[in-house]
Design a protein that fits this description.
The structure holds two protein chains of two kinds. Helices cover 83% and strands 0% of the residues of chain A. Chain A has helices spanning 2-38, 43-77, 83-103, 110-141, 147-162, 165-170, 174-183, 185-209. The longest helix of chain A is centred in the first third of the chain and has 37 residues, at 2-38. A six-stranded parallel beta sheet of chain B has the order 3-2-1-4-5-6, sandwiched between helices. Chain B starts with a helix and ends with a helix.
Chain lengths: 220, 279
């Protein structure tokens, strides 16, 4: 009789820990920061809480590293898809950690040398490839199949040409015309989207704070 | 004829790649030196720094990575140059880990290399701090508490430049060089609207349209959009650099892309016409 009751209590406590406690923390933290935005009196406390948050976020990096190791170790162990790349990833992680912790990160260190001679060119290459893919995508996407597509295509071409020096060479008022496109039609549409998204974010935020939205706790 | 247009409509992307590569590389060796004027957002960015009182302190937030360097590095260098030329003290922080070495290199190249400025007196690199918006808000309360040590491990409060700097109210302006998130938008939402400090931004061309509403509302006091923005800024500074050099390539590449869009549409409408005729 006693055993099932203990198990039942344990289950209830476990559920409390999993659901109610995170909701309470979220509620208190959320409303505290909203209050802090409007009241300078909360500033000293807010500064302490901000420091806690920064420390918590730093700890999240440890979790991130652990997760990378866990996921990639499993793939490497069973020689799954792209397992060789995963070895490079894990090796890169440890190499940078080693040189960063034991050699420092300033100018002239090995860490910095790797940054400038490996990461820098690799990231630049990835970003540079974008130009080629955008050109190819523009060729295929800007077909004038409807009125809306025509509007999009013509505006895109005008902005594209007007925002480089050759546009000004073709027509001296091209840059002011493009600025007008950016400042009037573009801005009106952008502002409408931003206001809509902000209202959505406010309502979702409130739902999270009062516990109506719980998917952030694990998709239930 | 139909086959030709069908081939044209489904043009192999490698052909486009070759044309774009040629358009980008050729002008680097055979510059066209096309003249261009300054747009209002760039002029505002320049004026915002130009009208600062010499000796005042600014925050330079370097929030980008090497991937965005072609667009942001030229404006980053030009901004440091203008700040040094105006004898303004620069406090740099980074919300992107990859921004720290870039901030350091820009200081070494311009502040030390060109102007012989002293670290800790005329400029300081506070380094990277994880926490995104939380770091921004925390800096609004106390910069020395948020960054107790700088990039080199010195105690922030011991540095001469940091004397009398508590929070944003002790700074004249925030200059943000932004490659994405966290970046300009977060600086506007979390800092400008809250602490009412002047903010100017240099960002990638793709994210510039997003900031036009803030520019119009006055929340952003100046904007450099992509390499063109950097080139205009360099021109205002009277010192053409990497941004200006890239303008010819960008011009020709845009013309090539326009040409392909045109060709694609000619093929599309020709095929459409032929199909209707055969019906």
């Amino acid at each position: 009789m006693d055993k099932p009751l203990t198990a039942f209590r344990y289950k209830i406590q476990k559920n409390h820990m999993r659901r109610e406690v995170p909701i309470i923390i979220c509620f208190l933290a959320g409303f505290f920061f909203i209050g802090n935005y409007f009241s300078p009196r909360l500033q000293p406390v807010a500064q302490v809480v901000n420091q806690w948050a920064i420390i918590c976020i730093a700890f999240a990096y440890v979790l991130g590293v652990a997760n990378i190791l866990r996921v990639n170790y499993q793939v490497i162990k069973r020689k799954g898809r792209d397992w060789l790349y995963k070895i490079v990833l894990v090796a890169g992680l440890f190499i940078m950690l080693y040189f960063g912790i034991f050699g420092g990160v300033k100018e002239g260190t090995t860490f910095n040398w790797i940054f400038y001679n490996a990461m820098y060119p690799m990231q630049a290459t990835m970003f540079a490839l974008l130009a080629f893919y955008i050109a190819s995508a523009a060729f295929r996407a800007f077909r004038i199949r409807s009125f809306q597509a025509a509007l999009l295509g013509i505006t895109a071409v005008l902005v594209m040409i007007g925002r480089v020096p050759v546009g000004e060479y073709i027509w001296k008022d091209f840059p002011p015309f493009v600025e007008w496109i950016m400042n009037v039609p573009q801005l009106a549409a952008k502002r409408a989207i931003m206001i809509g998204a902000a209202l959505g974010a406010i309502s979702t935020g409130l739902k999270v704070l009062i516990g109506l939205e719980k998917t952030y706790m694990g998709g239930e | 004829m139909k086959e030709f247009f069908e081939k044209l409509e489904k043009l192999d992307r490698r052909v486009i790649f070759i044309f774009v590569a040629t358009a980008l590389i050729l002008p680097l060796f055979l510059p066209l030196n096309i003249k261009f004027s300054t747009t209002p957002p760039v002029q505002s960015f320049y004026d915002a720094i130009e009208f600062l009182t010499p000796g005042s302190k600014v925050l330079l937030s370097v929030d980008y990575d090497p991937g965005s360097m072609p667009e942001l590095w030229p404006m980053h260098l030009a901004a440091v140059r203008q700040l040094c030329r105006k004898d303004i003290k620069i406090i740099s922080s980074q919300l992107w880990a990859t921004g720290s070495p870039l901030a350091e290199r820009a200081f070494n190249e311009i502040a030390v290399g060109e102007f012989n400025k002293k670290y800790g007196v005329d400029f300081v690199n506070l380094g990277f701090k994880e926490g995104r918006e939380v770091v921004m808000v925390s800096m609004g309360n106390s910069i020395p508490q948020t960054f107790p040590t700088d990039y080199h491990g010195n105690k922030t409060k011991d540095l001469s430049i940091m004397k009398e700097v508590k929070n944003f109210s002790d700074l004249a302006i925030i200059v943000n060089i932004s490659g994405g998130l966290p970046g300009t938008k977060e600086w506007i939402l979390q800092v400008q609207s809250r602490f009412h400090i002047k903010l100017i931004s240099g960002c990638t061309a793709v994210s510039a349209p997003e900031f036009y509403p803030y520019l119009q509302s006055g929340q952003l006091s100046g904007l450099l959009g992509g390499m063109k923005g950097a080139a205009e800024y360099e021109q205002l500074m009277g010192k053409p650099g990497l941004g200006t050099k890239g303008m010819d390539s960008q011009s020709v590449a845009h013309i090539v892309i326009f040409f392909f869009i045109l060709v694609g549409n000619i093929a599309y409408f020709s095929l459409k016409g032929m199909k209707e005729e055969s019906k």
